[in-house]
Amino acid sequence: MKRRLLGIFPALLPLIVLCGATESAVRMGLVKSYLLPAPSAIAQALLVNRVELLGALWKTSEAALAGFALSTVAGIAIAVFLSSSKAVQRAFYPYAVFFQTVPVIAIAPLLVIWFGYGLRTVIASAFVVSIFPVIANTLTGILSTDPALRDLFQLYGASPARTLFQLRFPAALPQILTGLRIAGGLAVIGAIVGEFIGGQGLGSVVDVARTQQRVDKVFAAVLLASVLGLALFGLVSAVSWMTLRRWHASESRD
After folding, report:
1. What contacts 65, CB < 8 A, 6 or more positions away?
2. Phi/psi-derived region of residue 248, left when phi > 0, alpha when psi is between -120 and 50, beta in every other case
3. How far apart are the C-alpha atoms of 171 and 160, rounded to whole Å?
4. Tens of pLDDT along 167-225?
5. What is the rounded distance in angstroms from the CA atom of residue 21 to the CA atom of residue 27?
6. Closest CA to 60 of 221, 238, 218
7. Do 194 and 108 touch, CB atoms closer than 8 A?
């Protein structure tokens, strides 16, 4: 326990200093509270509006997790398809890149037209934002398999499917998990953006609080969204540690 506390303390120290400095600056009048609320005001907003915020957090979590799961499955499948040949990559990978460059806020109204207001639009928004890192990292990992090992599998007459699932996919696992770490945070961002247009969740709370000039409530909702993103990141990191700690340097411990 002592070692864990010592490991957490370096990360908490800058946060404590920042909160203390912000609280002092607001109380001394150096920063206007309607521009940057004091941490104590944010904590009070969390407490007073806890029922509304926790309900919104649940809705955002549901949409972000669903979008993240869909992007994981679809992203890995698309990457496997793209890795099948150079011709397939040249034909389809540019469209994946183009799809990523389209701002989700620009297509969010289209998502409402296609899926209607509510959860489906928010899930679609989270999916659109988070799928590209999964595709890119999975494809990079599969294509980075050691050529000597590929030749060895070919020498023993392994089929393409067996080579994929017993060699290339396990070798790509560190890169896949890195892509999932990125996609987890992006799924939360996509869900929030979708909620600006489609309603519900923390995005709706932020939008309504903005119109009411409730900056403290906006910060409270943003804080919960950040916690959700960190939770997804931690979940993927835990999976990475359990799957890679015995054989990959990125998760090995002395």
Report:
1. 187, 232
2. beta
3. 15
4. 888 888 999 999 999 999 999 999 999 888 877 889 999 988 888 888 999 999 999 99
5. 10
6. 221
7. yes
Q: Full-prediction pTM beyond 0.85? A: yes
CA dist 95 and 135 (Å) reads 12
3-state secondary structure of 69: helix
Share of the chain above pLDDT 90, in %: 38
Q: What angle do CA 111, 184, 146 make, to 5 degrees?
A: 115
Q: Report the amino acid identity of residue 162.
A: R
* Tokens linked to 198: 């489609």
Q: Of the candidates 66, 210, 224, which has an alpha carbon nearest to the alpha carbon of residue 130? A: 66
Amino acid, res. 58: W
Helix (H, G, I), strand (E, B) or coil at 99: helix
Q: 2-16, 21-35, 235-249: lowest mean pLDDT where?
A: 2-16
35-94 pLDDT per residue, tens:
888 889 899 999 989 899 999 999 999 999 999 999 999 999 999 999 888 888 888 888
What structural domains and CATH numbers belong to the chain?
A: 37-248 (1.10.3720.10)
Those residues whose C-beta lies under 8 Å from the C-beta of residue 163, and which sit 6 or more positions away, are 150, 153, 154
CA distance 168 to 80: 10
Structure token digits, residue 251:
């998760």
